[in-house]
Amino acid sequence: MEVGLEVIAALMAVAFVAGVIDAMAGGGGLLTIPALMAAGVPPVAAIATNKLQSSFGTASAVYAFARKGRINFRRFLWPAVAAFIGSAFGAWVLQRLDPSFLEGFIPILLLLMVVYFLVAPKASEEDRHSRLGMASLILIVAVIGFYDGFFGPGTGSFLTTVLVALFGMGLVSATAHTKLLNLASNVAALVTLVIGGQVLWAIGLAMAVASVAGGQVGARLAMRVGGKMIRPVLVVMALLLIAKLLSDPGNPLTAFFLTR
């Protein structure tokens, strides 16, 4: 499909803001996927093109965190592999099923995440004792990776919450390692969707340039302000995503309450 330069410029602006948000807390897809669909991109192609631009932005954030020594690549190798495999499978399923049925469950999960961050004690910047072992982390990450390949928005928020709540990581450390896991899932989904011929390259690459810049800004903000800013951004993005999903009359959860 062809779009005008003004539309591409607008999509790049959205991608920059989404890159900042993604690097800090996840949820940038809340902005980019609706923006792509508003530009006339079909749903599956919008998810695929979003994976292209967000992969570059997430890689930019990983680089920024890694330069500061914030990522333990050896410890998170197998979780990253699990995210890759789960996401590839999710993207494969996406091209064969209607992803809309997931929209009824995601608001509930996001609401639980918001409740956790509102009532839980203030997260430390230091890592604490993990409640679960590596096998559990690999399994949970694989499931979240499947969701990322199948749909996507909120993946970073889910990963950060899991790393903080179940595996005792400080917010900045959890955010940094979330970017690594998210990069693995993004790349897997992207490869699968490229093979399926779903990616719009010109739009995706233009947005990727802006997403890289946003990822650098977001990572630096996260490391500078720490949990003081990450926690509120997580909550706000989750609430916005809940509102966006439930505002659609076709959402199964919305339809359920409207028929009551």
Mind explaining what this structure looks like?
With 260 residues, the chain is mainly alpha-helical. The chain has one domain. The protein contains eleven helices and no strands. Helix 4 crosses helix 8 and helix 6 crosses helix 8. The longest helix is centred in the first third of the chain and has 25 residues. It is globular and about 50 Å long. 52% of the residues are buried.
Map the helices and strands.
Layout: H1 5-24, H2 29-38, H3 43-67, H4 77-94, H5 106-119, H6 134-150, H7 155-165, H8 171-195, H9 201-225, H10 227-246, H11 252-258
Helix pairs in contact: 1-2, 1-3, 1-9, 2-3, 3-8, 3-9, 4-6, 4-8, 5-7, 5-10, 6-7, 6-8, 7-8
Low-pLDDT residue intervals, each spanning 5 or more residues:
none
Question: The biggest beta sheet, please?
Answer: none
What's the end-to-end separation, in Å? 41 Å
Task: Please state roughly what percent of the residues sit in beta strands, choosing from under 5%, 5-15%, 15-25%, 25-35%, 35-45% or over 45%.
Answer: under 5%
What is the C-alpha radius of gyration, as a whole number of Å? 17 Å
Percentage of helical residues? over 70%
Q: Secondary-structure element sequence?
A: HHHHHHHHHHH
Shape estimate = globular
Number of domains: 1
Helix/strand class: mainly alpha
Membrane topology: Multi-pass membrane protein
InterPro entries: TM_pro_TauE-like (IPR002781), TSUP (IPR052017)
Protein name: Probable membrane transporter protein
Transmembrane segments: 7-25, 76-94, 100-120, 132-150, 156-175, 187-209, 229-246
